[in-house]
Amino acid sequence: MESHPSEVSQLLSQLRAGDRGAESKLIPIVYAELRHLAAHYLRGERSDHTLQPTALVNEAYLRLTKLHNVDWQSRSHFLAMAATVMRRILVDHARAHAANKREGFREAISLEETILVSAGRSPELIALDDALSRLATIDTRRSKIVELRFFGGLSEEETGQLLGVSARTVKRDWRVAKAWLYNEINGK
Question: Is residue 115 within 8 Å of residue 95, measured between CB atoms?
Answer without folding.
Answer: no
